[in-house]
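User: I'm preparing a small set of examples for a lab meeting where we compare how different chains pack in three dimensions. I only have the primary sequence for this one, and I'd like the structure in token form so I can line it up with the others. Please keep the answer compact; I'll paste it straight into my notes.
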Amino acid sequence: MSAETIEKLKELKGLLDAEVLTKEEFEEQKKEILAAGPKEGSKPVPMGEAEMVSVAEPIAIQQGQLQPSSGPPGESQYERERREREERREYQDRQDRIERQERQERQERQERQERQERADRDERMQMERMQGERAMIANIQGLHTGSRKNLTPVEWLQGAWTKPGDGCCIPARAFVLTPMGENTFRFDGPAGTNTTNHIYTGTYTRNGEESSTFKGNSLGKTVKELTVVDENTLNGHFAPEGGMAVTCTITKNAPTNHKGVPANSAPHVQVMVGRGARVAPAPPRATRRGR
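Assistant: Understood. Below is the structure token output for the 291-residue chain.
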């Protein structure tokens, strides 16, 4: 048996060990190689080596000794090295594609996470801004409502009122207050009273939406003002043109208690203020009658 035949048998055995060929295919090709015989000029090999190859084949298969593939039969060393380089290149290309895909997936996950975080942050900022605006509106509304709540409604003022005198020279004067809406009322003296009541009487309108002071209609530079202290008390300021200014307190004849607070029905004393005069806790003895 020639060295060429033995080499072919070894390559065929390598294909069998690499499970490229089945046992039947191996036996068939083996018979063909042995039947072909040695080529001219080939060196014969002692019979013992050929028998060793033939006998060693089943033993290697039984023991599961797999030898690395040496490539197809008749493959030269150059072709084998080229094939191995191509396999390594293909393997490296597959690894590169896998790494690129994983890197791209990681980048996409990171971008999705960043977009979600930005969306959540924008939503939180928008909610905080809306809450701040609602709180500001509620605060403004609360201030407005609270200030309006502190105002005494005009309808609570309805009834008979009296401007007390000083028990000496200034007589008491009676009035009737009639509401004419949320911010207006009529302040009149009873029929048959002194005509000087016209200084106090008239239509009074609230001096501003949040004000407790009502201004009366008047001619010229005459000033008429009534400030609501509570539903049972009015502070008046009257300054007739060319006359003496009068500051007084007017009280309701039959005190009411709409707020549930005990009404103060204590009598109030009128104080007259003249040019250059000073307001005192107790009024001095008047020298002229108040109007």
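A couple of notes for your slides: Strands lie at 159-163, 173-179, 184-188, 202-206, 213-216, 223-230, 233-239, 245-252, 271-273. Residues 77-150 form the longest helix (74 residues).

User: Perfect, thanks.
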